[in-house]
Design brief:
There is one protein chain. This protein is α+β, with helices and mostly antiparallel strands and 1473 residues long. 31% of the residues lie in helices and 24% in strands. The chain contains 46 helices and 73 strands. The strands form 19 sheets. Strands 3, 4, 5, 6 and 8 form a five-stranded antiparallel sheet that branches. Helix 15 packs antiparallel against helix 17 (523-531), helix 32 (976-982) runs antiparallel to helix 34 (1069-1078) and helix 39 (1227-1246) runs antiparallel to helix 40. The longest helix is centred in the last third of the chain and has 38 residues, at 1080-1117. The N and C termini lie far apart (110 Å).
Length: 1473
């Protein structure tokens, strides 16, 4: 393959001899190559005939020896050594045993001389050696030599010719690194926000190779070249087997295993090249790099997958090297806002190819990952398991001679805490007196902190210093003893000799972990100090003689365990493990759910921080935290704890899972912790079994004693040790979150405090479930045996446990229906609770009791006595009616949420109506009448409502369902058997006020649509446009046509009236279909009735169409905004109108309420009121109101309309008009409406038309601007005529205000007066309409029509009417008198020329001279009180009887500028008052 630049993948390291043809024995090579990959991945073998053999046994790896062989070996023994050594090499994984055996037989034996050097300068293409007897020694740099005994393999790399390949990756002085690193890219937000600076150490520890300033590798201090690796034969010589590559090639070819070998070699070479290419171990020679490559694997990670997690420390963690792709470094950061304990993952940067991750954490399993690394793209990475790496390091300590590790350790040396602080935390050196503190300071001055590496000698024979292992592990080898033993964190070495109680021990202490942190106190420096503190000699001697030294040094003092026994403390101590946190690294994070461990600080300082507050406390050596978490009293961490900045922190961790196991093994300690748990549960802390919360403390304590608590890892339903957790019991989730899958694959999320599998409390078998923890979870599992054991000790609580379990199962069933926990929404399935308050429903919900019914069990039985309401929340059931069946009857299946027994709980019936049977296991919620009455005592509103409902039910006529049905059309002649089948399973159904029983256009199909009989209450039948077509009362039948299949869709809607409930008897469509199929002849009669109804419906549609075209559309066209609308467009708008009936003295609309529709009064009369309630006039049939609301100019009503008699009102919504125009693409009409809006706003800006009158009014005055919006602009071209609309008086008379041009008012052909801005600019339009006159334009004219009600309403909005209102009233009266005089003069002229014997109206423009003058024209006057304040009077109606009063004004008032109180008082003549 061609190698790509910057990547090692695919580089060709293939020997030329690979090109030789491979022998084929009964199998094709191509097939074997395909099998090779499969076999190598499974660890199996393929024999010479291509058949898969059993899994190969573990063999010795390169440079590992096989003990138990010595000189004097037989040929068979030697072959076994060679075969086992070769079979254990990664190159031969999957090869057949016979092939390895033949290689061992044919390998040449060779004697090796003493001290012979086996590593020459050029070892490529030389044979591989396998030590048979004797030994060789490997010396790696300055590290101790390592013995290579029989079975050790030497020169495996040279045999493959890979030493020359490694040379190109060797670092040379002043040479750039072999590969350019993508390095670390910081997120922009972290550069500016300070987040990265705070967590800089975390990123450095995660990937130390990255320089935080340049983003490239920092190799300044890296040693060039490799460590010197010499392999020499021992002093006694050795015997080795010589295995050349030719022999391997030939034999594997004969056994058809060469393709497997070739595949293994490619995989191994790829990993070997990757380690060299990325300089993972830059100082190691190729032979050891090859050894590490043998334990590593290439692994792929998908985008979004987590490579390592913050705080993660597992035995299976590994060192990672990214080859392809990128990953983001994230950290969970808490909010800094006060009072907010929330956080989110913030991206600190991005790691790309060549990034080496986790080599610091791989030094010890107690160093957790400092941040989370998540793949952002597809990633290919080299993974080196830590456990295997540690095994190699322990075998060959020189491997840790890595520049990165030593550089990182040099940085840590600046972060170690003071020695005196560490000593102060040990009880051995700690007391309360001042003298002890002085001693610690003196000892701290002579103490030495040092970091040791694997293989380093910590203490040799004869050393008398005191050493304390702060972190890491050491191996102690005693002279004369073959057994070694290890000591870990907090161990003390050399204490007997140090205190002068024994001679120095003859033993050697070496470091067994990659890194160890040790505190050393030299005895020669300690003795002079002790001379100054003689009192401490006796103290030290007594402590050691009492055997308390190791306890004081190794056992942390937890206040929680102060009263616990020694055995339990010893068990807890055995499970403690050391953890080292880097400076600033998080130990636990507030609000986060973790494993719940408890910690004790052993070195350094930890800080406690609360979100929004900051650091609240510092923890020193000996302090502990996490007690409440380990006991399960808190679900989430209440604060964040981290290592102090600039200082290492070593803690002893007590894992919660191991603590609970120790507690279970020591039952004598459980009572104390159960008492603590009971105290916290009483305070509402901690999670507990929901169904047992009302049980006794004894039962809950027994449960906690017998039921195990386990910690699971994320994504795996196993313990921390990898053991599978059982699923045959009930599980309580104490911490974390899990996803539970049922047998069908459906899943649900189980949160903290929730449980699943609780059905075993009822004696049912466990469900078939699968659990996937979404986080680290803590669970408590109860099996059937534990339940039986607990109930045997608490027999009186068996029923409580049973009912509590049923209620919990019902609560979960409600959640599956979409209701939250403890949400009373399930009660709203019954409409009798529809109008109840939430507080009432909560109290009712608390009194529900759950029942469970197995398959085939009766839930209710016909005529069975009962007083409970039942709600089906889980399972499936059938309605069997009265229990008797007919062959034609089909089963009635009940849906979830089905309600029955409403009349029983109301007390209006004592027996259940139908028989209900469970088809599967069902859970039913039940409410008894006594519980309902108990709650009603505290809720008077609901009590009154239920009493009224019950009284209506008691007045219900006791008729058989047959009698009800025979009242319905189509059932008059039906047989009794037909009705019995159709009514089978009929049940009671309640509908709340305003609820639809069924809706128009609902699909109807025989067998699916239901029919309803009204028992109590009333409903209305609504048409297509919500027109009220009919009313339904008790005993009426609704929906029979759709239920019988006569209609495909419902022809109307039936809705309950807004003032009460409706109780119906529902006939199911399935039963009706059974009746129709059993009696087809009766069905034909029903079809004839259906056709008759369809004809009636069609006639009604035609009548409505005629009404729309003849009445509604003409009324709409008289509106100014619809001037340019075509008849077709107006009809499209009108056909969706809603006609509504109003009773007398009912408000149609209210001033100040939202206005979004056009209102048309079709019949009746309504009063117009101001917002204060004063009546200013009336509107009559034909009035159109709300043009500005349709235009979107005004959003609220300016007046209140209240009916004086029964009225019919049509409303057309704003959206309907605009949407219809857009749907029909009426672009011109839409533009005209927008121009109309613009014109109205322009009028408002200029204060038109009031500013045209001599009123001395300002355009910015609010009242003038409001009036301007209502004014209608009229434009008449020269020569055209204009007449007022026919309904101009329906909503009050208008005043004509001339703005431009001249026009004549003519009565027929007779001239009346001239209209112009200079003369007669103010003209009452009502007179024009009354005398049937017209306006003829002499030039282009512009005028405004101003409704009198709009002026009065605008003036009434002010606290006091504006000053100009008085002058407006004067102008109005003068215009009325003057214009009326002109019209009367013309009228008298007509009378003089008229013959007395004939009545002709041609000369007078078509008016009747005997018609009463100004009949019905309303006028409103103002009056001023004694203090000069204006006061609005009711309107005055001018009538023929008041004509004399009208004439009394005469010429005197025409010439008057100011009207006195006498003349104003004359306006009240003929008024309604």
């Amino acid at each position: 393959e061609e190698s790509s630049s910057g990547s090692w993948t695919g580089m060709g390291f293939v020997d030329e001899r690979d090109l030789v043809a491979i022998p084929r024995v009964e199998a094709e090579s191509s097939n074997l190559m395909a099998q090779a990959e499969q076999v190598c991945q499974s660890g199996q073998q393929i024999n010479c005939k291509g058949k898969i053999c059993s899994k190969a046994g573990d063999g010795a790896t390169a440079l590992h020896s096989l003990p138990g062989f010595c000189d004097g070996q037989s040929e068979l023994q030697q072959c076994e050594i060679i075969e086992k050594a070769i079979a254990g090499l990664p190159l031969f994984r999957g090869c057949s045993d016979e092939a390895c055996r033949q290689i061992a037989i044919q390998a040449r034996r060779s004697a090796l001389c003493a001290n012979q050097l086996l590593t020459e300068t050029k070892m490529d293409h030389k044979p591989m050696l396998v030590i048979l007897s004797g030994c060789a020694h490997l010396t790696l740099g300055s590290s101790p030599r390592v013995e290579l005994g029989p079975g050790s393999v030497i020169n495996e790399v040279g045999m493959l010719g890979l030493n020359e390949v490694a040379e190109q990756f060797k670092l040379q002085p002043d040479a750039p690194p072999p590969c350019a690193s993508v390095g670390l890219r910081l997120a922009e937000a972290t550069r500016t926000g300070g987040t990265f600076e705070r967590h800089q150490t975390d990123v450095q520890s995660l990937c130390p190779e990255m320089s935080l300033t340049t983003g490239t590798r920092n190799i300044v201090s890296r040693t060039c070249g490799w460590l010197q690796a010499d392999i020499r034969v021992g002093q006694a010589g050795a015997t080795a087997a010589v295995v050349p590559f030719d022999l391997i090639f030939r034999i594997l070819g004969e056994y058809c295993d060469y393709e497997i070998f070739k595949y293994n070699r490619k995989i191994q070479v790829d990993k070997y090249s990757a380690i060299l290419f990325y300089a993972v171990f830059p100082s190691l020679p190729p032979e050891l790099v090859w050894l590490i490559a043998g334990v590593s694997v290439m692994q792929s990670f998908q985008a979004g997958e987590v490579l390592c997690e913050d705080g993660e420390r597992k035995p299976e963690q590994a060192l990672l090297v990214i080859d392809k792709g990128e990953a983001s470094v994230t950290k969970y950061i808490l909010s800094k806002q006060p009072g907010e304990a929330t956080g989110r993952d913030e991206v600190l940067g991005t790691l790309g190819p060549s990034s080496i991750i986790g080599d610091v954490c791989s030094c010890h399993e107690g160093i957790p990952f400092p941040a989370t690394l998540r793949a952002t793209t597809h990633i290919t990475a080299l993974v080196i398991p830590t456990a295997d790496l540690h095994a190699i390091i322990e075998r060959f300590p020189g491997v840790v001679a890595m520049d990165r590790l030593r550089e990182w350790t040099a940085l840590l040396e600046n972060s170690v805490p003071l020695s005196s602080k560490i000593l102060a935390g040990l009880e051995l050196f700690n007391s309360l007196d001042t003298e002890s503190q002085s001693l610690n300071r003196s000892l701290g001055a002579i103490c030495m902190h040092k970091f040791f590496y694997a293989g380093d000698v910590v203490s040799e024979a004869g050393d008398d210093s005191l050493r304390i292992v702060i972190f890491g592990r050491c191996r102690v080898r005693t002279a004369g003893s073959e057994a070694d033993f290890c000591v870990g964190t907090n161990s003390v070495l050399g204490e007997q000799c140090f205190f002068g109680l024994s001679e120095p021990a003859d033993c050697v202490v070496t470091v067994s972990t990659p890194l160890a942190w040790i505190l050393c106190i030299p005895k020669n420096a300690f003795a002079p100090i002790m001379e100054n503190y003689p009192a401490f000699h006796t103290h030290f001697k007594k402590v050691y003689e009492d055997g308390c030294l190791k306890k004081q040094l190794e056992t942390p003092s937890f206040p929680l365990f102060r009263h616990c026994g020694k055995e339990f403390l010893a068990a807890v101590q055995r499970v403690m493990r050391p953890v080292m946190f880097l400076p600033g690294q998080s130990i636990c994070i507030q609000t986060v759910v973790d494993s719940g461990s408890m910690y004790s600080v052993r070195a350094g300082v930890a800080v406690i921080e609360i979100a929004g507050i900051g650091v609240v406390r510092k923890l020193g050596i000996g302090d502990s935290f996490g007690e409440r978490a380990i006991l399960g009293f808190v679900k989430r961490r209440s604060a964040s704890v981290s290592a102090a900045p600039g200082m290492l922190c070593v803690c002893m961790e007590t894992p919660r899972a191991e603590f609970l196991q120790a507690l279970e093994d020591h039952p004598e300690e459980q009572a104390f912790f159960h008492r603590l748990a009971g105290q916290y549960e009483a305070k509402g802390a901690g999670a507990s079994w929901p169904m047992l919360r009302h049980c006794s403390e004894k039962l809950r304590s027994l449960l906690n004693m017998y039921a195990k608590r386990q910690i699971t890892s994320k994504g795996s339903w196993t313990t921390s040790k990898g053991d599978e957790l059982p699923l045959d019991g009930a599980v309580l989730l104490l911490h974390g979150e899990a996803k539970v899958f049922d047998a069908t694959g459906n899943s649900r999320i189980v949160a903290e405090g929730s449980c699943f599998g609780e059905r075993i409390f009822l004696g049912y078998p466990a469900e078939d479930l699968r659990v996937q923890p979404e986080t680290n979870c803590e669970v408590q599992i109860i099996t059937q045996d534990i339940i039986n054991k607990i109930l045997e000790e608490c027999p009186n609580e068996r029923l409580d446990v049973w009912q509590g379990t049923l209620n919990e199962m019902a609560s979960k069933a409600e959640q599956e229906l979409g209701f939250a926990r403890n949400d009373p929404g399930v009660l709203r399935y019954s409409k009798i609770f529809g109008a109840c308050s939430d507080a009432f429903l909560l109290e009712i919900h608390k009194r529900l009791k759950a029942y469970i019914f197995d398959e085939g069990e009766l839930i209710t039985e016909h005529t069975e006595r009962g007083d409970s309401l039942l709600i089906l929340v889980q399972g499936s059931a059938t309605n069997e009616g009265t229990g008797s069946s007919h062959p034609a009857c089909r089963p009635l299946y009940l849906p979830l949420g089905y309600v029955c027994g409403e009349v029983n709980v109301l007390g209006s019936s004592e027996h259940y109506l139908n028989t209900l049977r469970a088809r599967s296991q069902c859970i039913v919620q039940s409410l008894t009448r006594s519980s309902l009455l108990e709650v009603l005592e505290d809720f008077p509103t609901e009590r009154h409502m239920f009493e009224r409902l019950r009284n209506e039910e008691l007045q219900l006529p006791q008729l058989a369902i047959t009698e009800y049905l025979r009242k319905g059309e189509g059932f008059e002649g039906a047989s009794q058997e037909f009705i019995d089948i159709a009514s089978r399973g009929a049940d009671d159904l309640f509908f709340a006020a305003g609820e639809y029983i069924f809706r128009l256009n609902e699909k109807c199909r025989l067998g699916e649509a239901n029919m309803y009989i009204l028992l109590t209450g009333s409903a209305v039948v609504l048409g297509e446009f919500n027109d009220e077509l009919d009313q339904l009362k008790s005993t009426d039948v609704a929906g029979e046509a759709g239920a019988l299949g006569e209609l495909t869709h419902r022809g109307a809607s039936v809705r309950v009236r807004p003032d009460g409930f409706v109780h119906c008897r529902r006939l199911h469509g399935v039963s009706i279909q059974s009746a129709v199929q059993a009696f087809p002849e009766h069905y034909q009669c029903l079809l004839e009735i259906s056709n008759k109804r369809c004809a009636q419906n069609e006639q009604w549609v035609r009548q409505r169409k005629d009404w729309l075209q003849g009445t509604v559309v003409p009324m709409l066209q008289q509106c100014k905004i619809f001037t340019n609308f075509s008849t077709e467009l107006m009809y499209a708008i009108a056909q969706n109108l809603q006609l509504k009936q109003y009773r007398s003295h009912t408000e149609i609309c209210t001033a100040g309420e939202a206005a979004d529709a056009l209102l048309m009064l079709m019949s009746g009369k309504a009063a117009v009121k101001t917002q204060a309630g004063a009546v200013i006039g009336h509107v009559t049939s034909g009035a159109v109101i709300g043009e500005l609301a349709v235009l979107g100019i005004l959003e609220r009503h300016t007046a209140t309309l209240k009916t004086r008699c029964s009225c019919a009102m049509v409303s057309i919504s704003n959206d309907l008009i605009w949407d219809t125009c857009e749907e029909l693409q009426a672009t011109a009409q839409l533009q005209a409406m927008r121009r109309h809006i613009h014109q109205r706003r322009k009028q408002m800006e200029h204060g038109l038309p009031l500013r045209l009158l001599p009123l001395d009014i300002c355009a910015e005055e609010t009242c003038a601007r409001v009036i301007a919006l209502h004014a209608e602009r009229v434009v008449i071209s020269a020569g055209d005529t204009w007449q007022p609309p026919s309904n101009c008086l329906a909503r009050g008379s208008c005043m004509w205000i001339s703005a431009k041009g001249r026009a004549n008012v003519t009565l027929g052909k007779l001239f009346v007066l001239v209209l112009s801005p200079d003369s007669n600019s103010f003209f009452p339009e009502a007179l024009l309409h009354h005398y049937k006159a017209q306006v003829s334009a002499l030039s282009n004219c512009e005028a405004y029509r101003l409704n009198r009600y709009d002026v009065l309403l605008a003036a009434a909005t002010e606290h006091l009417p504006p000053k100009w209102v008085k002058h407006w009233d004067q102008l109005t009266e003068e215009a009325m008198q003057k214009t009326h005089g002109r019209f009367e003069s013309v009228r008298h002229v007509v009378k003089m020329h008229k013959k007395p014997t004939k009545r002709s109206s041609s000369a007078t423009g078509g008016f009747n001279t005997s018609e009463p003058m100004l009949a019905g024209i309303e006028h409103t006057a103002w009056r001023w009180d004694s203090k000069g304040k204006p006061m609005l009077l009711d309107q005055t109606t001018f009538s023929p009887e008041s004509s004399s009063g009208f004439k009394s004004f005469g010429s005197r008032s025409l010439g008057t500028k100011s009207l006195g109180s006498k003349s104003l008082g004359s306006l009240t003549v003929g008024s309604e008052r």
